[in-house]
């Protein structure tokens, strides 16, 4: 099976693990990853990344010249994509730039013009309602009409595209999996001592951006009602809310229990997660529907949840976006913005270690079954086979 996947996402080496795993599932699978030759992820003020070619036999990464180097919807590949397509002759063409991407329309057209007869697939994370005007409405209709299979990172994304007229096959799965070798249970007594965490203190953890929509202030409010119990709050990340976090903790009388760690490299994150007795993702939806689209944000997945679950750390999440579907029955879910409900969840885990242990094991098993790169590669291959042979 010859699979071509195109996306700016795979410029980053760390993001390629799932696609490599695909080639290990069957000896006849070849994966060709197309990335833009030049990309500027943060806009004009950031440095442009120059992509590098990589050839590992049945897994290859090929940079292709591109127009627009910082907008995934406007990304279009140069003429050198033609030779690549006609030489490789893919059976699957998967473009991971969304439903309205010009690059997806471009590869659909080239697939037709050169009679490749490949199945067209796209991936989307977009989970907020929207309306289109011409010419975007025409572009999306063309893309959806010529799509054989859709992979959505969340249920909301799939439902929205159904409302836009998509009626064919859908697979719901995240774009990237978790590395179970990196994110695995490991005791961290030295790090705990370094941070001043005592062995009898329950560590409540958060990993992510310090922004209002991540619900950190709700978490602080919830913990402020549990001062009779022994705990520490470990926040891993940075952002515009940092000063407000300190101020709110001071006003609540819990600043001495607050630990903030900034700028941790990805490979170090598991050490900190393994300090936690629970990881919280208290995200809060902020969008409001305007004339054409929703303005704001809703949790698209919550990748840190599966990282914690892989470390056998029990998780608590709000009901924003995809969080309840990620957690399933392997953690606790509370109504977003409800500090009292979150406090109740925290108190359950603090006072019932057997419940915490049970959820930790369930979360670990759920992640190994559904969310490792190997598990995602298997799901993706099954979807490809369904499209090719049904």
Q: Which residues form runs of ≥5 with pLDDT under 50?
A: none
Major β-sheet, in short? 8 strands, mixed
Which word captures the global form? Answer: elongated
Domains (count) = 2
Mean pLDDT over the residues: 95
Radius of gyration (Å): 22 Å
What's the CATH topology name of the largest domain?
Answer: Rossmann fold
Q: What is the end-to-end distance?
A: 15 Å
Beta-strand segment tally: 20
Give a quick summary of the entry:
36% of the residues lie in helices and 21% in strands. The chain has helices at 17-25, 80-88, 102-113, 136-145, 155-163, 189-195, 216-223, 242-251, 269-273, 303-310, 323-327, 339-351, 353-370, 373-389, and strands at 2-6, 30-36, 38-39, 49-50, 54-55, 59-64, 66-67, 76-77, 92-95, 119-124, 149-152, 169-172, 202-209, 231-238, 258-261, 278-281, 288-289, 294-295, 315-318, 331-334.
Question: Could you characterize what this model shows?
Answer:
With 390 residues, the protein is of the alpha/beta class. The protein folds into 2 domains: 2-177 and 372-389, Rossmann fold (3-Layer(aba) Sandwich); 189-370, Glycogen Phosphorylase B (Rossmann fold, 3-Layer(aba) Sandwich), CATH 3.40.50.2000. Helices cover 36% and strands 21% of the residues. It contains 14 helices and 20 strands. An 8-stranded mixed β-sheet has the order 5-6-2-1-9-10-11-12, sandwiched between helices. Strands 15-14-13-16-19-20 form a 6-stranded parallel β-sheet, with helices on both faces. It has a two-stranded antiparallel sheet with strand order 3-4. α7 (216-223) links the parallel β13 and β14 (231-238). It is elongated. It starts with a strand and ends with a helix. The mean pLDDT is 95.
């Amino acid at each position: 099976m010859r699979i071509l996947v195109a996306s700016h996402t795979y410029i980053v080496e760390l993001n390629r693990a799932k696609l490599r795993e695909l080639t290990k599932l069957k000896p006849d699978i070849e994966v060709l990853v197309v990335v833009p030759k030049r990309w500027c992820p943060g806009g004009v003020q950031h440095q442009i990344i120059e992509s590098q070619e990589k050839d590992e036999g049945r897994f290859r990464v090929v940079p292709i010249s591109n127009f627009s180097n910082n907008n995934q919807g406007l990304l279009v590949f140069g003429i050198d994509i033609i030779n690549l397509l006609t030489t490789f002759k893919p059976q699957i063409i998967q473009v991971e730039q969304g439903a309205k991407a010009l690059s997806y329309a471009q590869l659909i057209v080239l697939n037709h013009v050169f009679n490749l007869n490949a199945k067209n697939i796209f991936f989307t994370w977009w989970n907020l309602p929207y309306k289109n005007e011409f010419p975007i409405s025409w572009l999306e209709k063309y893309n959806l009409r010529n799509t054989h299979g859709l992979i959505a990172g969340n249920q909301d994304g799939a439902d929205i595209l159904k409302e836009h007229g998509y009626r064919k096959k859908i697979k719901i799965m995240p774009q990237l999996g978790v590395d179970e070798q990196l994110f695995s249970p490991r005791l961290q007594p030295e790090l705990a001592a370094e941070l001043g965490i005592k062995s009898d203190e329950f560590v409540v953890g958060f990993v992510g951006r310090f922004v209002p929509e991540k619900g950190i202030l709700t978490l602080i409010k919830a913990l402020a009602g549990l001062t009779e119990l022994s705990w520490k709050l470990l926040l891993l990340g940075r952002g515009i809310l940092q000063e407000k976090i300190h101020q709110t903790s001071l006003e609540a009388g819990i600043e001495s229990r607050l630990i903030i760690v900034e700028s941790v490299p990805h490979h170090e994150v598991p050490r900190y997660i393994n300090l936690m007795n629970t990881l919280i993702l208290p995200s809060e939806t902020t969008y409001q529907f305007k004339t054409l689209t929703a303005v704001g944000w809703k949790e698209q997945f919550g990748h840190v949840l599966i990282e914690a679950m892989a470390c056998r750390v029990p998780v608590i999440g709000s009901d924003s976006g995809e969080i309840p579907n990620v957690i399933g029955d392997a953690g606790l879910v509370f109504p977003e913005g409800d500090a009292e409900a979150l406090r109740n969840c925290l108190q359950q885990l603090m006072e019932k270690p057997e419940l915490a242990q049970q959820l930790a094991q369930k979360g670990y098993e759920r992640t190994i079954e559904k969310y490792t790169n190997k598990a995602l590669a298997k799901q993706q291959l099954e979807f490809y086979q369904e499209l090719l042979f049904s």
